[in-house]
Amino acid sequence: MPYYRRVGEVPPKRHTQFRQPDGSLFAEELMGQEGFSSDSSLLYHRHRPTAITSAVPFEAPAWSRVPNLPLKPRHLQTGKLGGGPTGTVDPVLGRQHLLANDDVRISYVEATEPSPLYRNAIGDECLYVSAGAVTLESTFGALELREGDYAVIPTSVIHRLVPKDGAVKLLTIEATGHIGPPRRYLSVRGQFLEHAPYCERDLRGPTQPILAEGYDISVLVQARRGWTEHVYANHPFDVVGWDGCLYPWAFSIHDFEPITGRVHQPPPVHQTFEGPNFVICSFVPRKVDYHPLAIPVPYNHHNVDSDEMLFYTGGNYEARRGSGIEQGSISLHPSGFTHGPQPGAVERAIGVEAFDELAVMVDTFRPLDLCEPALAIEDTGYAWTWNRDA
Q: For the Homogentisate 1,2-dioxygenase C-terminal domain, which residue ranges apply (predicted)?
């Protein structure tokens, strides 16, 4: 993260003696990225965070992917997904994988039960809450997430997700590296710059430790070579305090300040995060182009180096009217295909002063493959909707 936080009890000097009431030492843990060369945090445990009593292979739900062939735009209807791949629908094992490449995997889940304790040792995860609420519990403390929140969970943080008041609907973006604010929004020291569409005041992190007790605690670990179930001698949520710049954090899409202009602005003005070979953008309600001859909807465009995925999560997306797109829809417009507004959208948009739309976009710089659940919920007529009359 671009700024420092301190939560709970920590000693005045790092890597020095910090004793518990009984005189024993707290166990210091450094969690850091890029081999001691990037962001990190120091956590202080009541027990050794290295003490495991068992490690066995774990059979996670199987999944597969196939190329987007024949190459065409796709429309996925998440409302038709039904239950997850396991008997219980939790926010981790219940994910329905939809699109993937070697950099990122995009899934959707409607979860009603708490997830197991889990750590993703492959890369960071970005969650988007499209409906409902969920508590993100981790070794760093708890974060309350509600509709419209993004949450970024750094690689290998032990955590679990606990739905609140019924079901929570999540779009999940799993990276093979790290996710953070675009570098152009940050100073050389990591402060948000004045042109950034959000800043430190908009971000939330854990504010106090959880301090759970327990023995022989199971944690599922997803790694590049497969899944393992570790059993920890003591509950990993035994941290009395931590400080640093690496921790789970949340940001509401409703706090994203849109950048507008006299003529139509390109998608980079909507960029919210960046990951390895992909970006995440937020389309929010906003005033639109105010040149007297402006056309507010997007022009036909062909991003020759990227695939574009859009998740429609609120409001009315004017450029897609007539295509069958609805709340919860996901569209995929691949490189090799020119896409744009539906027939009639350009004329309808002229003179419009504001758009009421909410969508999350992921642009990838390698082609996205289709996973089995995506094929089962595809609106197969979508590719031909540009041929219809307005």
A: 278-383
